[in-house]
Design goal:
single chain; mainly alpha; Four Helix Bundle (Hemerythrin (Met), subunit A); 6 helices; globular
Length: about 190
């Protein structure tokens, strides 16, 4: 199975990207019937954004550590950090999609001027980077998990990984800024 995956990384990347984005946009746009999802208590739902902020902050740390390890040539540590980052992203995404599927996207509680000139542009860039990151992350993750470290030199893993990590990092940071505007500042 790994051999098949190794030989079809672009195709698998495309399939996983389409499925992931369909789930995200389906949840955000309300296409997932709310009655089909078991509802957690309000206390649980209300803590999800705060848990996700912590998860995002830890992911920023693991991505940065992964980049540092790659630059030092410590590829096993790099792999561990990036797999941890991917797991943290999966946790974030499951929690986010669960809350959004049940309650819809959070409404901005602050003044209109901040909404128009700060919140919306930050949110737009955050969403755009997150969408662009998805196929890049799947691509480098599939390359890394279907090959030994020594074979990655013959792939685009490092080049695509640098772009993916940079965009992913910025997206997580902007996500935390959006969180702060929604739940801390206002």
């Amino acid at each position: 199975m790994i051999r098949t995956a190794r030989d079809h990384v672009p195709e698998l990347t495309a399939i996983l990207t389409v499925v992931s984005l369909a789930l995200v946009f389906g949840a955000v746009l309300g296409a997932i019937p709310r009655g089909s999802i078991p509802r957690a208590p309000e206390a649980t739902l209300s803590v999800i954004p705060h848990v996700n902020a912590v998860v995002s902050t830890v992911a920023v740390g693991t991505i940065l550590a992964g980049v540092v390890f790659a630059r030092r040539g410590e590829f096993e540590k790099h792999r561990a950090m990036m797999l941890s980052s991917a797991a943290l992203f999966a946790v974030f995404l499951v929690l986010y999609l669960y809350k959004v599927a049940l309650e819809g996207p959070a409404e901005f509680p602050g003044p209109d001027v901040v909404y128009t000139w700060a919140y919306l542009p930050l949110l737009a860039v955050h969403i755009l980077l997150a969408v662009v990151c998805i196929p890049l992350l799947y691509y480098v993750l599939l390359l890394a998990t279907t090959r030994p470290v020594s074979a990655l030199v013959d792939t685009a893993h490092a080049r695509v990984g640098r772009v993916a990590a940079s965009l992913w990092l910025i997206s997580f940071v902007l996500g935390n800024v959006v969180y702060a505007l929604l739940y801390v500042v206002y």
